Amino acid sequence: MAGPELQVPHLDRIIGELQQTAGRISGEQTERLADRILRSRHIFVAGAGRSGLMMRAFAMRLMQMGFQAYVVGETVTPGMTRDDLLLIGSGSGETKSLVSMAAKAKSLGAALAAVTITPDSTIGQLSGDVVTLPGAPKDRTGEAYVTVQPMGSLYEQTLLLFLDALVLRLMEKQGLDSQAMYGRHANLE
């Protein structure tokens, strides 16, 4: 006879934190970002560290929806023009390499958007569209949001879930379903 199933330590707390953060994301900001993406010829995404991984996952879904989406820094990423969008995921909004990238995109006349904890950051101020995600910055200075998780984990998880929700909104706006997206799924695996 099997005993009671063991719970995964801390998982309930993490899920609870994610439910709290999800309830604090602006639908209006999300809608503006979705519309900006739909108006863009190419969508470039960037982020550093784990945030960068979340942005890469988003680029994959955009590609599967038929968007011309690129991860900045990849060898197959084309040049940016004024009809394009650079979307940066950065909790602090102050990562030096991303700040430089944001400034360059602006100098090219491209649209710039950010998904960040700190809309008043350098990247946030440069961006035409900003989605503010609740979370604890990695350095935890001036922290107003308490989390059991280390460093930027809460932001990074919220970023991934937010971007997945944004994918669903873009699918709705384009009349797409998952079946239509499978035609663009990688097939050399």
From TrEMBL:
<keyword id="KW-0413">Isomerase</keyword>
<dbReference type="GO" id="GO:0097367">
    <property type="term" value="F:carbohydrate derivative binding"/>
</dbReference>
<feature type="domain" description="SIS">
    <location>
        <begin position="33"/>
        <end position="176"/>
    </location>
</feature>
<comment type="similarity">
    <text>Belongs to the SIS family. PHI subfamily.</text>
</comment>
<protein>
    <submittedName>
        <fullName>6-phospho-3-hexuloisomerase</fullName>
    </submittedName>
</protein>
<dbReference type="InterPro" id="IPR046348">
    <property type="entry name" value="SIS_dom_sf"/>
</dbReference>
<dbReference type="InterPro" id="IPR017552">
    <property type="entry name" value="PHI/rmpB"/>
</dbReference>
<dbReference type="InterPro" id="IPR001347">
    <property type="entry name" value="SIS_dom"/>
</dbReference>
<dbReference type="Pfam" id="PF01380">
    <property type="entry name" value="SIS"/>
</dbReference>
<dbReference type="GO" id="GO:0016853">
    <property type="term" value="F:isomerase activity"/>
</dbReference>
<dbReference type="GO" id="GO:1901135">
    <property type="term" value="P:carbohydrate derivative metabolic process"/>
</dbReference>
